[in-house]
Amino acid sequence: MLLAAFAPPALAQELLDWSADEIRAIGRHGPWPPSPVRDPSNRVSGAPAGIVLGEHLFNDPRLSGSRRMSCATCHQAGRDWGDGRAKGVGTVALDRRTPTLWNVGYSHWFGWDGAGDSLWAQSIRPILDPREMAGSAAEVGRLLRGDKDLACGYQRAFGATVGTDDERLLVDAAKALAAFQATLVSPRTSFDAFRDALVAGDLGDAARYPLPEQRGLKLFIGAGNCDTCHFGPRFTNGEFGDVGIGFFVRPGEVDSGRLGGLARLADSPFNLLGRYNDDMSGANAARTRHVQRLHSNFGEFRVPSLRQVGRAAAYMHDGSVATLEEVVRHYSEVNPDRLHSDGTPLVRPLGLSPQQRTDLVAFLRSLDADPPPRPAPPPLCP
Ligand code: HEC
Ligand code: HEC
Q1: Strand ranges (E), 196-252
Q2: Over the stretch 259-283, which tens digit does the pLDDT of each residue have?
Q3: Where are the domains of the chain?
Q4: Closest-lying ligand to the alpha carbon of 223?
């Protein structure tokens, strides 16, 4: 009797049976956080002075044509680096949802359609896009040359004074923006504690992870087949898929997704095959060189990471699904005729019971955690 009084209630949970294969599959979703990666195409990637310059630029509305919109207008720190809306709003209403920037440094394709092959190239797009920030290389050049603090921050980051080639300055600003964004890593979650305990064989600790979450996870890596695409520590394989979300943006107008993204990638002067890739060997351009444009890319969108997913305001590339419960219902009832993938379909209607749907949502929510408050950015030139 006395002994029972000492048992902490958190240990009173149970542990499902987990096979060796399941434990291996769960292990592949970690460890978290992963080690930082350096981007060889970006010479200020991982460099402290580049990161500081990037954070200042990220918050600077002078990068936009109106001088009123910064990256942080849409990618807000307090909203998990999104905007809390179903679809983005720039100078006009946009057709796609603003994605989070958590863990973006680990991606290899960027944007819902993969039109960017580097984080810095993807960071140029919103500056120039007339529907987003509607800025220009000339204005970015003027800003870097004309602002004493930014010019000093540029010199510290790039080891050279601000030059006169505006296009190069636009690229350098984007490289600093990328260096900053690559530092945004989402916090550890209750799933990570479970995963580490299970892999270490610490079953007492693993049993703290509630049963609904455990049952949802079992579905996720098992019958649900979710981790074929939502693979690895970030819960995405970084590639593209079609899960039956509509592609009409207006009657008669479609968002072709990956198909259009590949055309934009090939046409971009800022892709990794171009002159701004800092990796002289060109080895990091292999993926861009070899990617093929297939008709089956029509209507494919990038597999989103599921970390912090429960904190998003809406789901899918077009924000057309309002809640996680509805996402799970979508996978449960998806119409196979809406999918136009060739080969073995990876998505098929799962016909989940209400209990299974609740479990899957409980699991997805265990990938969320509150981030610590952010300190103010350090000064550009202390
Ligand atoms: C008007 C709102 C808005 C502004 C301003 C904005 N973005 Fe975005 N951002 C979006 C939307 C919408 C997308 C999705 C675009 C797409 O898929 O075509 C996106 C996508 C991205 C991505 C790709 C993320 C991923 O997971 O692939 C990055 C990186 C990014 N933005 C960085 C920036 C930076 C850096 C700035 C400032 C220079 C910026 N954004 C300004 C709305 C905005
Ligand atoms: C064929 C690959 C594939 C499989 C299998 C798959 N997904 Fe997805 N998932 C995607 C793609 C692609 C999107 C984005 C689709 C879009 O925006 O049009 C997505 C979107 C999501 C989203 C919304 C995330 C966001 O930020 O918008 C959630 C949640 C999700 N999937 C969970 C699951 C679950 C749970 C399963 C298993 C039942 C699953 N997925 C199976 C590829 C897949």
Answers
A1: 240-241, 248-250
A2: 999 999 999 999 999 999 999 888 9
A3: 2-30+188-246+303-365, 48-181, 250-297
A4: 2
